[in-house]
Structure formats: C-alpha cells, structure tokens
Amino acid sequence: MKRMGMIFRAKANKALDRAEDPRETLDYSYQKQLELLQKVRRGVADVATSRKRLELQLNQLQSQGSKHDDQARKALALGREDLAREALSRKSALQQQVSDLEVQHQTLQGEEEKLTLAAQRLQAKVDAFRTKKETIKATYTAAQAQTRIAESFTGISEEMGDVGMAIQRAEDKTAQLQARAGAIDELLASGALDDPTGMAKDDLTAELDRLSGGADVELELQRMKAELAGPSSSQQAIEGGNGGGQQQGQSQDTPRFDKQ
C-alpha cells in the first residue's frame, strides 16, 4: 500500500508540474499579498476609528469637567458650599475617566502608528514583488517562445514530430509502391508472370514492334508524297526504284528531234 501511495503521489506531482504555470502562480501570490495589505489597511482604519471615538469622549468629558468647575465657582459665589463640593466631586470622577481614556488613547495611537508603518512596509514589498513578478513573467514568456521556435526548427516539438512522422510514413509507402511496381514490370518482361490482358511484352518483341512501326510510317509518308505529286509519280513510287532507272535509261537513248 505504501508503494502504491508513493506511485500515486509521484504521478500526481508530475501531472501538477506539467499543469503548473509559473505566471499563474506569481499572479496568485500577488493577489494574496494584496488581500493581506487590504486587511492591514482595514486594521489601521479600525484603530484610527477607535482612537477618534476616544478623542470625542475625552473632549466631551473635558467639557463636562469644565462645566462642573463653573458650577462650583457659581455655587461658592452664592454661598452654597455644599453645591460647590458636589460639583467638584463630579468633576473629580470625570477626571478619573479622562485619565483612563487618555491611557487608552495613547495605546491606540501607538498601535495605529505600528500598523501604519507595517502597512507602508508591506506596500513597499508588494510593489517590489509586483515589479519582480512582471519581470519573471516576461522572461518566462520569452524563454517559452524561444523554446517553441527552437523545437519547431529542430523537430523536437510534439506537433512537428507528428508532421515528421507523417512525412516519413508517406515516403516509406511511396518507396514501397515504387519498388513493387518495378518488381512486377521486371517479372512481366522476363515472362515469369503472365499478363492476362496480353499487353505485356518482352524486350525483343517491343523492339521489333518499334522498328516495324517506324517502317510503316516511312511507307505511308512516301505514298502520301506520291499522291500529292500526281498519278505518274504515284505509279513510280509504288513500282519502286528499279523501274524508275529503266525509264531514265530509255529516255537517254531515244533520239531528240528539234523543231525548225
């Protein structure tokens, strides 16, 4: 079972390697960093909001303390020391709340400063990662294109390999057919195979037929020339060369009379 599990994990890892695109991985990492930066910014905004709320409460308590202080002064002026004492007691209670809120305000302000600094640093890292990401993506794309071009030229790529195999199969089949046709022609010429159509001839028969055909053409050509020259010439052409020689000899022996 362990071996099967190892084989399965190895095959799955190999399939993932083929399917993984570094550019997509970089884009995903950049997206995650942007999400983290957004969370940090929201945290800064939340802390700043809490700090602002404390500042409003402090201002309100300080206003109430000033009001109680005025009430105590007014009560003393009217001779009501008891009322002045009550107003000052309320002022003292408010002062304790103000002190507690000031401590919280300082704590929130410190946290806000830390988060703001962290957000700035994270922003700088995200910007640097984005620049590096785009550089790596451009380099990877260029290398991928160069590899594909090189594979196409060398025939290593899968597509060009299929084309090369198809061409090789076509050439092999063509050569096989040519060899088979040549072998059949040789067997027919040698008489080892019979031609049922009677069209196949040996070399001697083919040569005799060619010569006979040439002689027939010459005879036909002479006959046509004689027909065009006239009946007497046609007769001479048919009788042959000897008859023509006799007529020429007789014409030379016959005396010639000139008209006066």
TrEMBL record:
Residue numbers spanned by region Disordered: 227-260
Record flagged with keyword Coiled coil: yes
Keywords recorded for this protein, A-Z: Coiled coil
Matches recorded under Pfam families: PspA_IM30
Residue ranges that the Swiss-Prot or TrEMBL entry lists as coiled coil: 44-139
Matching InterPro entries: PspA_VIPP1 (IPR007157)
Superkingdom of origin organism: Bacteria
Family note: Belongs to the PspA/Vipp/IM30 family.
PANTHER family: MEMBRANE-ASSOCIATED PROTEIN VIPP1, CHLOROPLASTIC, PHAGE SHOCK PROTEIN A
The protein's name in its UniProt record: Phage shock protein A
Organism: Streptomyces smaragdinus
